[in-house]
Specification:
The radius of gyration is 22 Å and the shape is globular. The protein has about 525 residues and is an alpha/beta fold. It is built from 14 helices and 25 strands.
Length: about 525
């Protein structure tokens, strides 16, 4: 059903470029890993838009690491495992909590300016964290500050070449080893990049859903190209819906950071009643999946399309100082965070699953690595702990570079010729197809799922698979093909898992079932579906 390559090509007919390391994608994972790789290697960064376009740029809350004397790796580990609902890899979590502080030190060395208070780093607390351990920048613009610092250094590094507006169509593999990538240039011509290591830093797949906090570029490309190349795709049923995205006519689903609730904001339904006490003892700071479903339940009960977040107990001065970006954004739509209740609703935010890797970021395909949201390292389990995503990217980025430093030189490119599609079978515009896919996913594979809906959704998605027989040529066509693969895998995984856990909730199986389901589901294009038990925590 899913072909090995999306387009026809012949390795011998295409121009070739040689480098040591290819980094696909920007964001914190791509920028950081490129900079660390460039200390010893020639690096080519390929981004489908630009260095500044990524999910990282929109990350408000911050980066979680043990900095304070009151905190410890053991506390951070425990919080991560609890949030992950029994599906975390304890080894991966240990790596994260012990190596996070050194990663943060790297970011500071590279020019990131985190907020200070009285001569020390200002730390805040977010949902499901037991301690204040979140470093932030410019109040609520942490991601933008990290991207600013790293992208400036990347542009100045003589060992890094940047190809903006290029699209990686597929990875070139032979006998389970990655030799590089097939890349489309802005003018539509194609080139093969040959490298000893290829690192996917392509982010998540928020565009699977009609309402998402992710930018337009989050189309699951890395997951889909890794799947076609033979990597394992694991735990993609676990999708985190951020509970509080702005829900206002004419406004995009802008994130209202969890840190706002961390600083004391409360949730109220359309009738003005505070409701979280009915759902969880941690109230507004319960794990994200619980808060998001509680909001949906209140919206259903009150026949409303949103609830309110109320931060009006704080002074205007405090609100402006702590959350300047959110304050200004809401104000541009006539909403004042310090005096108005802000209408919010859940929106697709983060994929816990992705391309399965080992503890050094390497996939089942040799010389192919994955870092950041595209990866499944085992850190997040069924539900990511807030602000662990930026930490994961730098910790595993460092480890990937250690592994690459030890790789032997790569052999010459194998001769590969792909010729399956008719040349004249162009496809209709994909804008409508994408919208249909997003509506199917929102309706049947969103926050609440059940077998009947998932089966119907899967059948509707399968109607689009004829796209793989077409002659694809444009970026939006490749993106749709990649989204479709992610949608099919996510729907299938959600149908298989007959329980509720973390970011996966089945109305027909509302309870967690550790006896049967404390395991991973992984998809492999050649070997089908496999299951993996959890190492005991």
């Amino acid at each position: 059903m899913i072909p090995r390559y999306l387009v026809n090509f012949d390795v011998r007919q295409l121009p070739q470029v040689h480098t040591d390391v290819i980094v696909i994608g920007a964001g914190i994972a791509g920028l950081f890993t490129a900079l660390r790789s460039a200390e010893n290697h020639k690096v080519l960064m390929v981004t489908k838009k630009s260095l500044l376009d990524s999910n990282t740029r929109y990350a408000q809350g911050g980066i979680a690491a043990v900095i304070s004397d009151e905190d410890s790796p053991a506390y951070h580990r425990q919080d991560t495992l609890i949030a992950g609902a029994g599906l975390c890899s304890s080894a991966a979590v240990d790596v994260l909590v012990h190596e996070g502080p050194a990663g943060v030190a790297d970011l500071i060395r590279m020019g990131t300016e985190f907020d200070m208070e009285d001569g020390r780093y200002a730390l805040t607390k977010e949902g499901a964290h037991s301690q204040r351990r979140i470093l932030h920048a410019q109040g609520d613009a942490t991601g933008a500050e990290i991207v600013r610092a790293l992208s400036e250094r990347t542009k100045q590094d003589p060992n890094i070449e940047i190809w903006d507006d290029h699209f990686v169509i597929d990875l070139i593999t032979d006998n389970g080893e990655c030799y590089g990538a097939l890349v489309q240039r802005p003018d539509g011509s194609r080139v093969i990049v040959h490298a000893k290591a290829t690192i996917l830093c392509t982010g998540g797949a928020g565009q699977l859903f009609r309402y998402t906090t992710n930018p337009d570029i989050a189309t699951g490309d890395g997951i889909a190209i890794a799947y076609r190349a033979g990597a394992n795709i694991r735990d993609v049923e676990f999708i985190q819906f951020h509970p509080t995205a702005l829900c206002y006519p004419g406004a995009p689903r802008f994130l209202i950071s969890e840190a706002v609730r961390g600083e004391g904001a409360v949730l109220r339904n359309i009738n003005g009643e505070r409701f979280m006490e009915r759902y969880h003892p941690q109230l507004e700071l319960a794990p994200r999946d619980i808060v998001a479903r509680a909001i949906v339940s209140e919206m259903e009960n009150t026949k409303s399309t949103f609830v309110y977040i109320d931060f009006t107990h704080e002074s205007e001065e405090t609100v402006k100082h702590r959350f300047p970006t959110i304050y200004e954004y809401c104000l541009s739509y006539g909403l004042d965070l310090s005096s108005d209740w802000i209408p919010v609703a859940p929106a697709a935010h983060y994929m816990m699953g992705g391309v399965e890797t080992d503890l050094h970021g390497e996939t089942a395909v040799k010389r192919l690595f994955a870092c950041g949201e595209v990866s499944s390292t085992g850190v997040h389990g069924a539900n990511r702990l807030a602000s662990n995503s930026l930490s994961e990217a730098i910790v595993f980025g460092r480890r990937i570079v250690e592994r690459i430093d030890r790789l032997s030189p790569i052999a010459d490119l194998p001769h590969i010729r792909e010729e399956q599609r008719s040349k004249d079978n162009a496809i209709q515009p994909v804008v409508e197809k994408k919208l249909k896919l997003q509506k199917v996913m929102l309706r049947y594979a969103g926050l609440k799922r059940h077998a009947q809906g998932l089966e119907k959704g899967y059948d509707e998605l399968k109607r689009h698979v004829s796209i793989f027989d077409s002659c694809l040529a444009k970026r939006e066509e490749y993106e749709f093909a990649n989204l479709l693969i992610c949608a099919l895998l996510t729907t299938q995984a959600a149908l298989i898992r007959q329980e509720s856990r973390g970011g996966h909730y089945r109305e027909d199986f509302p309870d967690k079932d550790d006896v049967v389901w404390r395991k991973h589901t992984a998809f492999n294009r050649a070997n089908g579906i496999t299951e993996g038990r959890i190492d005991d925590v």
